[in-house]
Amino acid sequence: MSRRLRLLSAQLPRPAHAAKLRALCAAVVGVSVLAGCGALPGSPGGKNDITVMTWAPVGTNATNMPGMPGMAKAYARWVDSTGGLAGHKLTVLTCNERNTPAGAAACAREAVSKKVDAVVGSYSQWGQQFMAPLEAASIPYIGGFGLSSQEFTSYLSYPVNGGQATLLAGNGQQLADSACAHTALVRPDTSAGDTLAQLLDTGLASRHGHKATDVRAPEDATGYETQAEKARDDAGDGGCVTAQLGDHTSTFFDSFRRLTDDGRDVRVSSVVGSIDQPLIDASGGADGLFEKALVTGWYPDSSDPVWNPMKKVIAKEAFEDNTIDAANAGVQTTWIAYTALQQVVSSIKGDQVDSGKIIDALDDGTTVRTGGLTPPLRWRYADMLGAPGFPRIVNADVTYQVVRDGRLVAQKKGFVNVAKTLVGSDLPTG
């Protein structure tokens, strides 16, 4: 069945159901009150509710992102207090993805069973497990965190950032620009981690020829002494150690900090989601290991005024929710994903909105503007990067940040585009 036929078939049940309801209403109470009966229950003025889901791992031994479902719930409270999502009541369901393939699949099955209109602003590395059920049910996946390859290959995925591909390629360029003599990458020994070294190397190669040493590490270890020593030895004097282990990045750098000083000057680095301001504060601020650390992000640093609208919503709707950190990349991605949803729904003509109409609006070129958090986003075929393994990237921008006086701030003003680096690279396609 063609993609268009699949999408059309996904739209048929809900309008058909509404037509049956109106016919039944007319038969029971008469034509004179049909106008009042035309609105579906709980949908004032004839506009239907919109139900979406946000999932993320919570309470696991690996990376946790409780702020993402927290931000989604706060957004729903805020938007409903201001008239709804383009006049529609927004209901947000959440699911604990548990950082496992089974957990990701279970969340996707729940989304299908609850007939959600979209999955928005979610986190999972298990794209193979969650994307297939969503595709079968024609449910769009909007603004995922960008961990899995399926988020950049599935025809129903609409990413708002360039995922790990842009972060690692950008981190490679940032490190090369900073004259690292050699680089060691510490990353999870998982399928999602397998491509990270190659991605980093694409960025390094854009400036010079050396490749990073690939140091594999358990994703949920309680200590990384062996990996820390290997990374420092491989980086050498004047080199850089960059680590991407999610929540366990702090555990790795704690092990790194405890190594006996051997007199070599080694600079540390990472990407957003692995190093953030709370970790820098907890590690001693300006006097800690992360002073002068290089960090690659997707978005402007958290002190930039462009984040003020999100911070106001957090202050109003989630002041006491300590899981929501405005500096967290997951929280920021969720905010951007819901901003995209709002503008897409606003572009849809007519009172009824469902998954099919959201997909059509996205595919037909609705432009999303995020107030400077990203470039304008649009998901037509012509807008996609087409990079090997990541064809659906529409935002190849990253930001260079640095820890200065204990604060994570912009190292370079504005965005750095890594599209040419990715398109010209020989990346895996699986």
Describe the model.
By secondary structure, this protein is of the alpha/beta class. It has 15 helices and 13 strands. Strands 6, 7, 8, 9, 10, 11, 12 and 13 form an 8-stranded mixed sheet that branches. Strand 11 and strand 12 (407-410) form a beta hairpin. The longest helix has 19 residues, at 329-347.
Q: What keywords describe this structure?
A:
430 residues, alpha/beta, eight-stranded mixed beta sheet, five-stranded parallel beta sheet, disordered N terminus
Give the helix/strand layout.
Layout (H helix, E strand, L loop, with lengths): L2 H9 L1 H17 L4 H4 L12 E7 L10 H15 L8 E7 L4 H13 L4 E3 L6 H10 L4 E2 L14 E2 L4 H15 L5 E6 L7 H10 L7 E5 L7 H11 L4 E4 L5 H9 L9 E5 L5 H6 L11 E4 L10 H10 L11 H19 L7 H9 L33 E8 L2 E4 L5 E2 L1 H5 L7
Parallel strand pairs: 1-2, 1-3, 3-4, 4-5, 6-7, 6-8, 8-9, 9-10
Antiparallel strand pairs: 10-11, 11-12, 11-13
Helix pairs in contact: 1-14, 4-12, 4-13, 5-6, 7-8, 9-10
Order of helices and strands: HHHEHEHEHEEHEHEHEHEHEHHHEEEH
Residue-averaged pLDDT = 88
Total count of strands? 13
- Share in helix: 25-40%
Distance between the termini: 24 Å
Our estimate of the beta-strand percent is: 5-15%
Oligomer: single chain
CA-based shape: globular
Specify Rg, calculated over alpha carbons.
23 Å
Category from helices, strands and their pairing: alpha/beta
Low-confidence stretches: 1-45
